[in-house]
Amino acid sequence: MANKIPRVVVREQDPKLRAANFEEVCYGYNEEEALLEATRCLNCKNPRCVAACPVNINIPEFIHHLTEGNIRAAADTIHVDSSLPSICGRVCPQESQCEGSCVLGIKGEAVAIGKLERFVGDWSLDHSAEVEGLKIEKNGKRVAVVGSGPAGLACASDLAKMGYEVDVFEALHRLGGVLSYGIPEFRLPKDRVVAREINEVKKLGVKFETDVIIGRTMTIDALLDAEGYDAVFVGSGAGLPRFMGIPGENLNGVLSANEFLTRVNLMGAWDPEHSDTPVYVGRKVVVVGGGNVAMDAVRTAKRLGAEAVIVYRRGEAELPARKEEVHHAKEEGIEFRMLTNPTEILGTEDGWVKGLNCVEMELGEPDASGRRSPQEKAGSDFVIDCDVVIMALGTSPNPLIASTTGGLNINRRGCIEADEVGTTSREGVFAGGDAVTGAATVILAMGAGRKAAKAIDEYIKSK
Amino acid sequence: MFKIVAKRQLAEQIFEMKIAAERVARAALPGQFVIVRANEGGERIPLTIADYDVEAGTVTIVTQTIGMSTRKICALNVGDSLADFAGPLGRPSEFVHMPLEELKSRKYLFVAGGVGTAPVYPQVKWLHEHGVECDVIIGAKTKDMLIYIDEMSKVGNVHIATDDGTEGFKGMVTGLMKELVETEGRKYDECVCIGPMIMMKFVCLTTKPWELMTTVSLNALMVDGTGMCGACRVSVGGKTLFTCVDGPEFDGHQVDFDEAMRRQAMYKNQERKANEEHKCNCYGK
User: Is there a contact between B60 and B52 (Cβ–Cβ < 8 Å)?
Assistant: First the structure.
């Protein structure tokens, strides 16, 4: 019988302190807390959480192992379906997935599945539990993986376990894709989590090469022909930033969230002692958008010392960001201007941002998608004074691979066309993650990478 | 890590390096650039490719020490390595895709300024190797700042301009252009200009009334160089484009140079501060 105690509160860094540093916000559960929280799970016969997980982790089973204090068994259960639990436990939108469908959540609080997954994932990294004792028989076949983000990592590690020789090509100088350049240190520590998770993949024998831009340095055609790979997986992500197309967008001080976060995360501009890359926040930063990337950007700007504001055209209920990120942002003193839409960025005489002209919005009737579409309130123009405007409006896939690979079809949104398991229009080429779906989540990308690994295995065996 | 296999000084503050980067050398075409990071913690900076040798597996870059990052690159010596050398990036010059017959009938005028002379070289060399001879104007402040004169002379018809008249034509490259086109009556189908932003602006103003199509190669600020950040946004014909993936070469008559120059100076204050704080030992070795 499940324990009827309230959800174990996770320890977090004090909001006032953390708003000025880049250390992780959430400390996570220790063993005692995790084992206690695990006792809350009802171990449902028909677990809705499993169905709501994009990769269908057997959640009741791993939690049950925890109640028995068997963390290794819990790790084994998770690893059947997920290769990045330390990461997903931190960045998955649990409230709309596993925890959102937890029976306990109907009347009270859902089991803290994400925090438990994180605990098991971190324990697993500390004990190298996934790869320890794994015996891999090489099958002599070679697969190239394009991109070292969540999709590529998951695909590479599964293929390596099946005995494939896997080479991962990364365009940037550091591995991890969006885990490295996009998600900030305070939400996903780079050395303690991302690098160690990648290190586990390396232990499986996967080789990584940085500074290789597929489509430029080498083409997919060359990988399949001259380089002799039996198959290629494309997990190149969705890295191309969108802008609004309003006047003033090329003023100095307007940047994409991608640029801002890349400067700070990938290039380390938050730590000027060890980085030559500059970043400019001025006195006040406005971030336009309401997704996780917008939250990451606004909280980063705050930590760099600026007054930081979110401007979003819909209402708070419509914010696409994880609830936890919105909550954390508010605790840290971020101002939220909802139902507000920028119409023009105002500049000084010498071309620097001095303000953002906005209009107030109101929600109209639900549109075809069921979402209430925002409409401008006539005559409601007003100006927010600011020095920097960051556009966090989403990203699209980079056209480089599609445009340099013969016979690879893309859709209207620039995404690579692929089926459920990653098969593309080009034989031997598989794809998954944001490159196929457009910007989505780490867990979906990871799931796609794993499905593609299976499909690649079947494809090569059938050749 | 990418080893420096050769290094020589071309002028005060201008250094040429050959980098062992086999794959980049194999894939490189005229007009493309690389992203270079000198060391861990260093900036990613874009440098236009000055030459490439498929057999030797090397790529040549020419760097002028204008800030901390370029100084760090130039302080490295033969046997040292660059942390990162990624490329080739950007679209190649348009002529590499042209039918050879059409190309052979075209007359090109290249205008190179200062360190921008280096990226002009692989273009003129490529055209020379494909049977197209070009006029090349090389400009610099003074004789000692001229680079790549010998190399360029082997592949194109070089005309020199120096501001102070210490070599060749006395005056700006635009003056020499006028001499060739207006005085000598030379006809061209296209002008390709690479140099400081301000020079490219004035070259475009010069060629505009001649209705001479002018291609420029922009050296915008970049972080990743692969289309991810948008730091290199430039207005071309009223449209916002990314220098890294849509360029770096654009129709110069459509480029908003004033905006491009302003955007290039985005981090000037911070760079100045970094330069002052940087304890320079670059020339100590």
Answer: yes
Per-residue pLDDT for B279 more than 60? Answer: no
Contact of A54 with A441, CB cutoff 8 Å:
yes
Name, in order, each residue with C-beta under 8 angstroms of A370's C-beta and a sequence gap of 6 or more. none
Angle between helices A31-38 and A113-126 (to 10 degrees): 140
The residue of A213, A242, A251 whose CB has the most chain B CBs within 10 angstroms, and thus the best one to mutate to test that interface, is A213
Which residues lie below 8 Å from residue B211, measured CB to CB, with a gap of 6+?
none
Cα(B266)–Cα(B262) distance, integer angstroms = 7
Q: How far is A34 from chain B (nearest CA, A)?
A: 38
Helices and strands (H, E) in chain B, number of each type: 10, 16
User: What pLDDT digit, counting tens, does each position of A414-454 carry?
Assistant: 899 999 999 999 999 999 999 999 888 999 999 999 999 99
Minimal Cβ distance to A211: which of B85, B262, B267:
B85
Select from B52, B70, B69, B55 the least CA-distant residue to B14: B70
State residue A262's pLDDT score.
96
Tokens linked to B120:
């002009």
Please tell me the predicted confidence (pLDDT) of residue A374.
87
Query: Alpha-carbon distance A442 to A409, whole Å?
Result: 24
| Amino acid code (one letter) for B194 | I
Nearest by CB to residue B223, choosing from A218, A259, A398, is: A259
Is residue A171 classed as helix, strand or coil in its secondary structure? coil
Q: What is the pLDDT of residues A137-146, one digit of tens each?
A: 899 999 999 9
Spell out which chain B residues touch chain A, with contact meaning CB-CB distance below 8 angstroms: 23-24, 27, 37, 41-44, 68-69, 72, 83-89, 223-224, 226-231, 233, 235, 240, 245, 259, 262-263, 265-267, 270-271, 274
Cβ burial of A171 (10 Å; 0-12, 13-18, 19+) is: buried
Q: At residue B262, does pLDDT exceed 50?
A: yes
Interface of A with B (CB under 8 A): 171-173, 181, 210-213, 216-218, 239-241, 243, 249-250, 252-253, 255-256, 258-259, 262-263, 266-268, 274-278, 280, 350-351, 398-400
* pLDDT score at B285: 37
How many Cβ atoms from other residues are within 10 Å of residue A389's Cβ? Answer: 26
Low-confidence spans in chain A with pLDDT less than 50: none
A-B interface: how many C-beta pairs under 8 angstroms?
115
- Do residues B2 and B84 make contact, with C-beta atoms less than 8 angstroms apart? yes
HEC-encoded secondary structure of B114-140: HHHHHHHHHHHHHHHHCCCCCEEEEEE
Answer whether B240 sits within 8 Å of A243, measured CB to CB.
yes
pLDDT per residue as tens digits for the range B159-183: 999 999 999 999 999 999 999 999 9
β-strand partners of B209 = none
Residue A390, beta-bridge partner list: A255, A287
- Out of B68, B227, B265, the one facing A240 most closely (by C-beta) is B227
Cβ pair B266:A252 closer than 8 A: yes
ipTM over 0.90: yes
C-alpha A12/C-alpha A115 separation (Å) is 12
Instruction: Give the mean pLDDT of B91-102.
Output: 94
List of chain B residues whose C-beta atoms are within 8 Å of the C-beta of residue A212: 23, 86
